[in-house]
Amino acid sequence: MSKITKEAILDALRVVEDPDVHRSIVEMEMVRKVEIHGSRVGVEVVLTIQGCPLHNIIEKQVKEVVLAVPGVTDIELTIGTMSDEERERFASKLRGKEASQSPLLAPDVSTEFIAIASGKGGVGKSTVTANLAVALAKRGLRVGVIDADIYGFSLPGIFGVSGVKPAVVQDLVMPVQTHGIKLVSMQFFVPNNRPVIWRGPMLGKMLKNFFQEVHWGELDVMLLDLPPGTGDMALDVHSTLPKSKELIVTTPQSNAADVAVRAGVMAQQVKHEIIGVIENMAYFICEHCNEKHFIFGKGGGTTVANVLKTDLLAQIPVAEVIERETGIYEEGSKQTVVFDRLAEELSQKLLLNKTPVKSV
User: If you ran DSSP here, which 8-state letter would residue 320 be given?
Assistant: First the structure.
């Protein structure tokens, strides 16, 4: 029987990743202790916070890889919590050498930024953002979402994670992971749903913090759910992300279309590329006759696309009024089919093609 060594155990543990940061627990110095007693191995793994909700995943993987080492017959696994010094080293590794600037804001970053904008509220812009994010993630893309609607944040509720608090390691925030995407929203940091009473400069600072103080890791695409209209936050997105592209969301009504055009004109004035228009609540399909009923009128999306000289990429049907825990449409629904087609078209347009996954 070959002798079990500490090096062999650590080599086996290198394939185990922290689910939050997707880095090896060995690389991140999360393996505090390895002890060998004959064919029995003792391992202590420390997590960033006490009661980490993802500890079961790490425990399962650690046991599997250690028991697969030749000669090992049993493992005694201890899950602990990092000391302040260990947590500081962990955060330093995450920040890397360029601590002064978020890697996502580097000039040569390969991440595609897509701002989702609308002229007015109530057109379902946040629901479109959330479901598009899920559809892109289903295609194998690494997707981040920033709820940049600081006053009217709603994405946590749409994703069903309103009560979740992101882990914070030495002032570095771990985005909440849900439905295969990474999410940050002001709602996570506002107690008891209190209103945010801020002026423009503070809004811009918060947007930069969403990049600088959050560990996003490597992303293929970042979606930003903008507040409606052409106010301070929209301007800050344009100045912070000069290469961002933009999707305009409208509904069929002429008044919604007119206001959506103004949001698109603003994007054009700051040299953002408008990659298309999405018409939400475009029609309702009767479950009895299976015909389209244009209950909010017709033509809004086409009008906006024509004025802005871009494409109408998708027309999202109205969902039936049913009780849902989240605003994410069920797989196989009429809405999901449209979002999947939209995600495929955007992937091809932006050269983001990856291997689609069956489920998220």
Answer: P
87's tokens = 């947590």
355 belongs to a structural domain: no
Domain match, 161 and 297 both: yes
Number of domains forming the structure of the chain: 2
Q: Which residue has the tokens 């890889």?
A: 65
Nearest to 17 by CA among 54, 43, 53: 54
Query: Would you tell me how many other CB atoms lie within 10 Å of the CB of residue 86?
Result: 17
Q: Is 125 exposed, middle or buried (0-12, 13-18, 19+ CB in 10 A)?
A: buried
Are the C-beta atoms of 247 and 168 separated by less than 8 Å? no
CA dist 359 and 115 (Å) reads: 25
Cβ neighbours of 328 (radius 10 Å):
21
| Domain edge (last residue) among 70, 95, 120 | 95
Give the E-state strand segments of 38-154 in sequence order.
Answer: 40-47, 74-81, 112-117, 143-147
CA 80 to chain centre: 28
CA 183 to chain centre: 4
Q: Are residues 55 and 83 in the same domain?
A: yes
Q: pLDDT tens-digit profile of 301-354?
A: 999 999 999 999 999 999 875 556 789 999 989 999 999 999 999 999 887 766
Instruction: List the domain range (segments joined by +) for residue 38.
Output: 6-95
pTM over 0.85: no
Structural contact between residues 301 and 312, judged by C-beta atoms closer than 8 angstroms: yes
Q: What is the pLDDT of residue 33?
A: 93
Same domain, 258 and 290: yes
Give me 359's structure tokens: 């489920």
For residue 162, which phi and psi values (nearest 5 degrees)?
A: -60, -35
Does one domain contain both 77 and 132? no
Q: Measured on CA atoms in the order 225, 227, 233, 236, is the torsion positive or negative?
A: positive
- Looking only at the bridges linking them, the beta strands covering 292-293 and 284-285 are antiparallel
Domain match, 79 and 132 both? no
